[in-house]
Every structure is written in C-alpha cells, then in structure tokens.
C-alpha cells in the first residue's frame, strides 16, 4: 500500500464525513447530532462519537488541567467534571472553594457567589457573564469572568490570590572568579573569589545562608598566600500576602528609606513594594563606572558582598541589585593590570509617597551584629510608617529606640502632579557615650522626582541632605562607642540621577552625580556622564557613538577620565569598534571586533596602543550555557603584564520533581522549574536567553520576577523533527524566592500511519482516541481502524479509549520497523494489562 496516498485520502475523507454528519441546527443548543447514513452499514455499529456529540463535552471524572482565568494562567491542578443537578447527562467543571480563592474575586463579588454539591462546587450562573469550559486538547480549563468582578489586574501582574509559593526545593547558587596576572618584572598573582547563596524552601518559608570568600597567592617580592571563606549570614523569610509584607528572621540589614542601614540579628516585618503593581513600585539602586581593562567589579556593604561580576573594558552599569538595598555601597574595580579603584555610591530613594488611605510600614527588632555573627550593642526596636492622607499629601516618620541611642524622624511628601513629587523630613538623634557624654543633632533631607514626558527626560532622583556635627546614625554610634572611631561624620550630600532624550537628533544622555562632604575628612565626589547617538552612514545603519566621562574622588585620591567609543555594524551579528580612553595617566586607543556566534555565545577582541605607547591586546568571551554562565578574558600590555581570567556563575536546584543545574544571576532568587515529560534537549525560552532541558527532561529558568506574571515557552521553531509540543507556553506568578513548577506538554517519537485491529479481526470504532502513558492524545481512530500516530517509541504501550474508558492497549514493536509502510498493531484487551491501566487511570483521575 502507498502510505502517502493512504494518509492523504483517508483523513480528508474522515473530515468531510464529520462535516456532512453534523446537523447544524443542533448547534443552537450546544448538542450535535450525527447522521450516520452516509457511512457503510458495517461501520455504523463501530462508531463512537460520544466525545463529539456535545460542544465542549467531557466525560464525568477528574482531569489534570491548567486553570486559565481570562487567558491568564494559574497552576495545573485536578478538576472534577460532574453532571449538574438539572442535567444527569451533562458534565460541568466543579470549581471548589480552593480554586475560587485563586481567581481573585472582589469582596463584593464573593458575597454574590452561590454553591451546589454540598457547597463544594460554584454555581457558574452566580455572576452574570461567567463561563467555564474544559479543553482536553490543551489540558486547560478556561474560565471567563467580567473584569468588574475581579481584583485589580495590570499587565504581567496578578492579585495576591493568584500568587504561587512554589514547591519544596534545595538551592545552591554560586559566582566564582579566578584571575592570574604575570608582571613583566617577575611578580605573579593568582586570585580566586566567590560568593553565593544556599538553602531550602518549605511551603511559604525560604531558609537561606549567604557565603563569600577569596584566595590570594603571590610570588616574587611579596610572596605569600591568604584565604578566607565564610558564611556571611543566616536568615529565613516569607511573604505575608494579606499584609503586603515580607517577614524576615535571622541576620539581616535594616531596610529603611529614612535611617541608615546597619546589620542586626532579629526579625523584621516590612511592607514590600514589589508586591504592588509595577507602576506603584520604587527604584532599585544603580552602580555605574568605567573599566580601563577587563576588570572585576565588586559591590559590597559593610563587608558583605552584594554583587560581583567581570566586565570588559569600557563603561558599565549594574542595574539588577535588589531593590531592598539601601544605604551607602562600596564599589571596587580590580583591573587586570593589577591596579584597583574604590569609591562609594549612595542609594537613592524616591520621595516617600503613599496612595490615599493606605499605610506603608517597616518594623524591626533585634541587636546589632557583625560579619562574625557576634552581637554588639543594645537591643533596639525600629519602626517606619507612611500614611496617604489624600491625593496630594503623605505623612511619614519613624524611630530607632535602643536605650543609650535613640532617633526619630518626621516628614511630609507632596505629589505636585505635573511638577513631580517632593518630600522633606527631619531626623533627630540622641546618643549617650561614656567618654563624650550626650550628643544630640539633627539631619535634614529634601528629595525630588519627576518625569518630563514633553521633554523626554526624567529626574529619577534628586536629593540634598545636611547633618549637624553631633548627629549620629546607629552605625556611627556603634563605631564610636565600641571601636572609638567616629571618623567620617557626614555633613552634606547631593545626589542627582537624570535621563534625557533628544529624539530629533538621536541623542540619549544619562548623568549620575553625588557629592558628599564630611565634618572631619575631605569631600568625596562621584559622577558619570554618558552621551550616545545612533545614526546612519550611507548604507550602514545604526552606527553608534558613545562618550562617557567620570570622576571618582575618594579619600584624597582623584580618578578622572573619559571614554569614547564608536561601533559600526558589520553583517547581521558582528560589529567593528573603536575605544579611546583618556585620563591623568595618559591615553589608549584600541580597535576591535565583536560578534555574536548564536543566542548563547559572543566574543570581542581588541588591539591597539595603550598608555605610554605600549602595544596592547585583549579578548573577552561569554557563554550562556544550560548549566552555568561562563566568561573568559585575557589581556596583554607590552612591557607591563599579561593576564587571564575566568568567571563561572550558576546554580543547582533540586525538588521532589527532579533537579537541574542552570544559569543564575540573582543569588537565592525566584526561579521556575519546567518539566518536558522526560524529553531531553527541548529548547526553552525564558529570562536570560535560550536553554535546554537536561537528560531527565528538567530545566530551571532563573531570575524570574517576583510577583510578576512570568511566561516561559518552548521554542517550537527549534524543536527536533521527532518532538511535538502540545502545550508550549506556561505561566506563573511566584512569591519572592519561590521555586515554581510547571509542565509542558511534550511528545517525542516518530510519526507513522497505523492500522489497529481487535482480537476478532475487527477494528476499534471510528472516533476512538489513542493516548500515551503520560495521558497525551497521540491519535484518533478513523474508518477501518486507521490512525495517524505521533510520539512512537520502541516498546511503548498506548491505550485506546472509547465509551469513556480504556478498552484495549497496543504495544509498539522494538526495534521499530521502517515507518514508510503502514504499521499493523493488534489491540489487546489482556486482563492484567487492562487492570493495571485502569488502576493508573483511577489514580490520576482520568
């Protein structure tokens, strides 16, 4: 038999027959009648069209389905279909109280809900316009509800009723950086540094431990080695959705928009802006600078490493720090030539405004501690509160009470509408010191934020703060009392972050500036100015030029410089570059070539003239692997040094559903484990590029946004020929630190035409379905037992169902014969196999 002719004619005839059988007037009552007179007499007794007789009809029973509310996806769960009270032959989904809680009804809508089946199932006619239908093809339950009955929903944001705490899991995240530098005078150094987070999730709780450390080895004049690896803090936290707050216990840092941050052992309850819709959230801190060579950038606070990465030479901006990070950050740039620079960045807070009638609060209780897990100083209680008085005004304040040290603050914020937002506050501190007596002082702060849409510009933050000489923060009090060190008492602080677009001439500008003066030491300055422009030159489009200027003045050391770059596209993925650096030590000019090999690999190479006319070359390679991100770099400068470096950043997540190694950026952060039903090498698109499922059919998409609706998909265009995705997109809104779990519908195996035969030589009825061991439909029986089967694997057993249950099973041969001919497959009703199969069906509610 010609299988191609058979396949082309039979399915088409089956579709035409179904079209002819439908009695169109019956659609009005959602019941379809079939006229079987067009079929052969011998076929009329072998036809099962029960699954097609009613629109959206499903046999009573339990089905594992993804719940979709107005096209937004909730997690997969068991859904029971049962006959309604007024229609014994019907079948509708039973929406239990647990499912209804996830839908996000308003309080008024909840009061209108009515129930049946002993109050275990929602009456779908409780709310006008509400409908629900099941779809076996996509394994989904579609629920449509008028938006007026639902809580506030924004793009990519769901109300708390839909948040998912994820599943139990173990996590281990790491970031390692190694570097070896050989100086021309014979001096060599090797360094290895790392940081990360480990812990586990249990229900809504996240238990975490942060670690950091380093190893240094030198040869030559300063030969020696030292190493230090420590667990920097232990803590646990969870989201409390009803309070829109985060509860944290253990070692933490005071999270405050009024008071300076300090480390403590205790507990805190903080209203979390990340739980708010995106347009009501604050800003995360940002660190920018310029690297003279391939360099390692470390951001720390009070000795704890917050972020560490390697960057190629040129400007860099770190914009993915945790938005809960407050206070002063220490930034260290370690160049590959052995030099290093250090400066400080003050995190900016937008004016403390709160929506009318709402309260935002922060509470903390404990004792100050250090990196060695020792407590030092008096126990304290800290509080912070902001109240939205009306549409324009907010009143806020707070206090830190610790016996010999106390401080209190009071402020007011004003929404100036088209003129932006303004806030002003005063903080009073009072400290009793054994040798200096009582010191009392005030600190005044004024902050402003505004987006000028008509001018395509935005003042992200602008602030001024003045502190009297005797004003002490908690950190200054502890340093003065227990270490005798009060050096660095702040006097004035100016901070500005500004963006401006010039669309007519294609120029974008960015400036970040801070100026801090002290009562007892030189002033510190830090600014970064960036101008960029895109333009076309003849047939070459998107040529870009960028100018960056910077100044870092820290502890009487000035570091001023300018960076000029030109990028010319070359082909589809490559570009030619020119980099020029100019500073007090001289200038350098480099030309380079950049190319992106594919979605996961890129590199750049540079060569030219360094300072004082020395020849120089460098290279930088990035690989975003399925199990980790790897960076490799090398630099050479004639007569000075040669250096190579390697960076590795990734994580391991283990759950009861499986385990996978993966890329990671935010240590200990939120992630989603996806399951491809045991099929390996399935291409998955999520946050951070393309990845693939491992040998066990698991993959982890890291760095998903907490409290955002995240979508992850199978790249169907890159699927192998023998793999199909019946469900290629999954969604989830996860709480902070959660490990979500979602399953794709993936079928792997060959495809072929088959003829199914029962023991008596007859065939299963027209319309019977064939399903695999994962309950995915792999074919529908046509006339004379013909079926186009997908997901064929050697030795696999598939079930054939009609009349609502499994009637027989087929076993595929092993090895498979050539699939260019029609497969003849006996359908056995063997008692043991069928009993076992029915038990599986019952267990899975199918």
TrEMBL record:
Gene Ontology CC entries for this record: cell outer membrane
Pfam families membership: PapC_C, PapC_N, Usher
Any one biological process term the GO annotation gives: pilus assembly
PROSITE patterns: FIMBRIAL_USHER (PS01151)
One function term, GO molecular function aspect: fimbrial usher porin activity
Localization (cell): Cell outer membrane
Residues of the signal peptide: 1-28
Keyword Mitochondrion: no
PANTHER family, per database record: OUTER MEMBRANE USHER PROTEIN, OUTER MEMBRANE USHER PROTEIN YFCU-RELATED
Family: Belongs to the fimbrial export usher family.
Name of the protein described by the UniProt record: Outer membrane platform usher (Mannose-resistance fimbriae), MrfC protein
Gene: mrfC
